[in-house]
Amino acid sequence: MSVSNAFRDFEHAGWGNDSVAISYHRNLGEVTSGCIPELVRAASVAAGGKVLDVACGAGYLAAAARDLGAEAIGLDFSAAQVRLAQQTYPDLQFIEGDAEDLPFEDMAFDVVLNGFGMPHVPHPEKATAEAFRVLKPAGRFAYAAWCEAAKCVLFSMVYEAIGAHGSLDAGLPAGPNFFSCGDLGYASEMLVRAGFTEISATEVPLAWRVSSPDAVIDAISSGTVRAAAILKRQNPENLANVKNHMRERILSYEQNGAYVIPAPARVVTAHKPQ
User: Fold this and answer.
1) Residue 48 has pLDDT above 60, yes or no
2) In CATH, what number is assigned to the domain containing residue 182?
3) 8 A C-beta contact, residue 72 and residue 62
4) Which of 37, 163, 198, 253 has a 20 to 30 Å separation from 83 between CA atoms?
5) Partners of 201 in the beta sheet?
6) Which residues span the domain enclosing 173?
7) Side-chain half-sphere of 253: how many Cα atoms within 13 Å?
8) Is the pLDDT of residue 91 over 90?
């Protein structure tokens, strides 16, 4: 099995777990949905347009496009996510499918959106090329991705804590850098290679407000795939030290009795030429 296939199978198995899908959207959905207004604005989603929401998760982005009068469909590689989306928005259509091999004809959509799905495919450049293929001339592609690790404390502190007190070499399949697609230089090169023009990016200052440090640790452990798997593969002593490290970091973000963890994202937008 190739490295890329192993990574895809690992991600597919993880996100195919109903409890993981539900935990992610109960906890982190409130953070990721903060990018929706900028995604639909940047992609000029409008009434009458055909919109594809790739890596749709619980369907929030497809629903936002529908609310603007667009004809929206959501796609996710996880059957659990598709079930969750159908339960949440029974009036919308959601299907299983691969972001790197979209089951649609060329030039089928006016807009393709992707909310935080890019780090979960083996080859983000293939997902980008597929978005280009299914867009009509003058179509728009917009995706959200986490900012660089130095800014996105919510996730970077997990890897920082493991690096300090455990081992990041947990025997997981190699995948894309979790933060690469939020880097405008990386994104621009990838999008230009696919054929896109008019590339731009906007930083969205997301943050996660929680009542206790352990709420963050529990959500990462139960509602993610890659980070949760690395945590679970630490020995008990190291895992306890990792969690204590994370608690200390989270405590430094206390504001009026709550904890506000920075998790900024970038919305990257590009156009298919006329």
Assistant:
1) yes
2) 3.40.50.150
3) yes
4) 37
5) 268
6) 3-271
7) 20
8) yes
